Amino acid sequence: MSTGMAAAKETKLVVKSADTSANMVVIYSTFAPETIEINTGEEVTWFNFKKPKTPMVLVSEDGLWEETTLYYGKAFSYTFEEPGTYVFTLKDNPEIKGTVMVYASELQEKDLETPSKIATAETTRATAEASSASNSGKNNKENVQNEEKMLIYSTMFSPETIEIEKGDTITWINLKRPKGPSVLVSNNGLWEDATLYYGKTFSYTFEEAGTYTFSLEAMPETKSTVIVRKK
After folding, report:
1. Residues 114, 39 share a domain
2. Name one Pfam family in it (predicted).
């Protein structure tokens, strides 16, 4: 039984922009999304949200960076300086692969006669903490391990169902392609309809146990569920 309206008065929520690049890849049991397209000079950030919580080793099959260990809730960022197709995988699950397709910018297209140089590991940046896009609406300094993430794609949520404990925060990130705003709706009336532009986030802290559903205004048939357990 949902206790939605009672929770609404006690929770704190915030709409904020992501400090990291809007190009994000989330590690569950697979990569989400499996393929991402960017322009040269853009950054991709990988987040580890694999359940059960465990560290993962992110590997560049093209040797762009040294093998990088990501603990749960942590992030790793890499800036792609050269056009090309790059493959990444998980050390313990090499059959799970993802791809970054990097396209040349207009300025670089004029200089294609110059041989490309492989981007070196010097351009890598492993973040010690998850970005502020991962921070809690209840407490912006709260450890990211107390927070779950949910991504909005063009026709779906990922994951579709998520289980948390009372007091935990969920952050929705709009990665809809083609880039466009999405209106996030709480079917339990926990918040007023929230418009998320591409790369923006919305956070909500669930203070009451219950089962809550939400959807996208333009696609009400696309629903997802948050199950909040008592501690």
Report:
1. yes
2. Cupredoxin_1
**Residue corresponding to tokens 């169902």:** 161
CA–CA distance, 46 with 59 (Å, rounded to integer): 11
Domain count, the chain: 2
Question: pTM for the full model?
Answer: 0.49
Interior angle at CA 164, CA 26 and CA 188, nearest 5: 100
Cα–Cα distance measured from residue 147 to residue 166, given in angstroms and rounded to the nearest whole number: 11
Contact predicate 26/47, CB 8 Å: yes
C-alpha–C-alpha distance, residues 172 and 199, integer Å: 10
For residue range 119-163, list pLDDT tens digits in order: 322 323 322 233 333 333 333 323 333 455 566 655 678 778 888
- Structure confidence at residue 54 (pLDDT): 85
Same domain, 114 and 154: no
| Token couple for 54 | 């465990």
Q: Which domain holds residue 36?
A: 24-126
> Looking at 99, 126, 153, which one is the last position of a domain?
126
